[in-house]
Design brief:
Elements lengths: L1 H20 L5 H22 L8 H22 L4 H22 L3 H21 L2 H20 L1 H4 L9 H20 L11 H27 L9 H23 L3 H20 L7 H24 L5
Helix pairs in contact: 1-2, 2-4, 3-4, 5-6, 5-8, 6-8, 8-9, 9-10, 10-11
Length: 313
């Protein structure tokens, strides 16, 4: 009861008083909203650890998030000119939802939930044309990305190749990263950021795909228990890199995107260097000839395409 009274008291100081007196919020008010929420959640969670609620702390955090969301909505309806206070209340709600996910879920479910939350925030940003909401979505997406990196260790222990929870998490993250980039294009940006933010998100999307290709290739060959360096794994990896580079180069030409073209050419160069120093050591003569023919044809194809499209570049 004491904690509840203190919480309501300071919440009233930071919100109700300003609304009734029509006083705009200052930095101290906004900081007080955050500190009050953080203190109450930490203190009340500690008191609830000895009760049945210990297994439902995520739902408790969501309940508080809904409470702050409702207060923020009421604040907007009664004093919408004080937009900083409204954003602060919504931000507290968003933080509580983000915290609730690891409190209630575990393993790869955390990554799925964070990716889903990032997608929801991006959708809100698109509908409300809100840059802060999109930034929040990007932040939560990186939390999901960080969690997915930890799931790599469970990937190699899974029973099935590809058809396993970590792989589905990677694929879901790839899809969310693409949708984030698409939605970011529909948010109003200043001229200096109009192409930068969506471009960086598309770059993140392509990088995520490249990372998943490497991980899945290693997972496939790790089940055969063969040597990492002198093995078909490296040849297959080079083939995947080359195919990915060709696709990236083609998209870069069609979209007139120099960054995609340069990235594709750089990846081709890395693949050729890797083929010389790693792949050739484990191949017989016939496969070495095939490898060089494939690399040569790929370079000839890129050169021919450049020659045809040189007037458009």
């Amino acid at each position: 009861m004491f904690v509840l009274v203190i919480f309501a008291f300071y919440l009233g100081i930071a919100t109700v008083y300003n609304i009734r007196k029509r006083v705009p919020s200052i930095v101290a008010d906004l900081v007080l909203i955050f500190l009050n929420a953080a203190t109450f959640f930490a203190w009340s969670s500690y008191l609830l650890t000895d009760t049945f609620m210990v297994d439902y702390m995520g739902f408790y955090a969501v309940f508080l998030a809904v409470l702050y969301l409702y207060i923020g909505k009421m604040s907007y309806a009664m004093a919408r000119e004080d937009i900083k206070r409204v954003y602060t209340l919504f931000l507290v709600s968003f933080v509580l939802v983000t915290i609730a996910i690891p409190l209630q879920l575990n393993d790869y479910y955390i990554g799925f939930a964070w990716f889903a939350e990032a997608l929801g925030l991006a959708y809100i940003a698109q509908r409300l044309n809100s840059q802060p909401a999109l930034y929040a979505g990007i932040g939560v997406f990186f939390l999901g990305l960080f969690e997915s990196f930890f799931e790599i260790f469970t990937l190699f222990k899974s029973q099935w190749f590809f058809f396993n929870a970590p792989t589905f998490l990677f694929l879901f993250g790839i899809g969310v990263s693409y949708l984030l980039a698409r939605m970011a294009k529909k948010v109003g940006w200043p001229k200096d950021l109009q192409k930068v933010v969506p471009g960086l998100l598309y770059g993140l999307f392509l990088t995520f795909i490249f990372f998943v290709l490497i991980v899945e290739n290693h997972d496939f060959f790790s089940r055969a228990e063969i040597d990492f360096f002198l093995s078909p794994e490296q040849l297959t990896l080079s083939a995947l890199w080359l195919i990915y580079a060709i696709v990236l180069f083609t998209l870069g030409m069609k979209r007139h995107n120099p960054y995609m073209r340069y990235s594709a050419l750089s990846l081709m160069a890395i693949t050729i260097i890797k083929a010389f120093f790693i792949d050739l050591a484990s191949l017989s003569t016939i496969f070495k000839i095939i490898l060089f023919i494939i690399l040569g044809l790929s370079l000839l194809g890129v050169s021919y395409y450049y020659q045809r499209k040189k007037d458009e570049i």
